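This entry is listed as follows:

___
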Amino acid sequence: LEASASADLANGWRIERAVLAFVALGVLLRVARYLTNYPVWGDEACLALSFPRRGYLDLLLPLEYGQLCPIFFLWAELTAVKLFGFSEMSLRLFPLICGVGSVFLFRHVAGRVLKGPPLLLAMAIFAVSLHPIRHSAEAKPYATDLLVALGLLALAIEWYYSPERTRWLWMMVGFTPIALAASYRSE
């Protein structure tokens, strides 16, 4: 019986190390995609044209070329452009931060609802999935949407597991206006 428990523990540690390896791989793939610094594509360019001529309040007005974006995303992009200059790298910095953050937040969310091999499989799929990687290096709000959705899901899961602790519910309520201002679906 003791040997079985020891084997289970060793297997659990191996799975946890593999999960952490996929977390690292997910971060590495997102950063590598960002560092390729590939040319701006059409939709990014249409959005990027809003930043050189506008201030923070001007971004509340309709954007050029029919672009729609959540205001917090626009302000984060403008801040990056003001701090680091107008370039592909500065325009894609905030989506990269959101993409990397989503890897860690996904690990937390998945770890709350899955254990063992299912957790490993979920983390592996998320780490190497093309769209989350690609959107982490695009000047569009899709990586932000993923991070916001995972944030709301994480708070909901925490509240589900301990409904007597209303702080999770209040954190959800407090995060909702931020989520609405940061999420593409709020437009």
